[in-house]
């Protein structure tokens, strides 16, 4: 495996781990997602459901990236679509950080998936 390919796969893994970390942090402390606001039960539920969804995508993707198996392109495509959806939510909420980081990771996931599949 080339060093460029290893680096790109490592970037995908780091981005996936970071997204999962932010989701878990949001579930544990929902006020982190909306600073200067107390976490109400609906915000806590939303944060927990986001963490569950993120883990459902992140764990299999991280395992696949570590193993380098055939499911990696498909899982990257799914993760990319999820990240782009998160980016759209960030745009809707006018939150640049919530829009930009997922857009970059979504594009990286999709580009890597395409490269690995082709």
Description of the structure:
With 118 residues, the chain is mainly α. Helix content is 81%, strand content 0%. It contains four helices and no strands. Helix 1 runs antiparallel to helix 2, helix 1 (3-28) packs antiparallel against helix 4 and helix 3 (72-92) packs antiparallel against helix 4. The longest helix has 27 residues, at 41-67. The chain starts with a helix and ends with a helix. The mean pLDDT is 90.
In whole angstroms, the N-to-C terminal distance is: 16 Å
Unreliable sequence segments: none
Number of strands: 0
Number of helices: 4
**Radius of gyration based on Cα positions:** 15 Å
Largest sheet: none
Write the layout of secondary structure elements.
Blueprint (H helix, E strand, L loop, with lengths): L2 H26 L12 H27 L4 H21 L3 H22 L1
Helix pairs in contact: 1-2, 1-4, 2-3, 3-4
List keywords for this structure.
single chain, 118 residues, 0% strand, elongated, 81% helix, mainly alpha
Write a brief structural summary:
With 118 residues, the chain is mainly alpha-helical. It contains 4 helices and no strands.
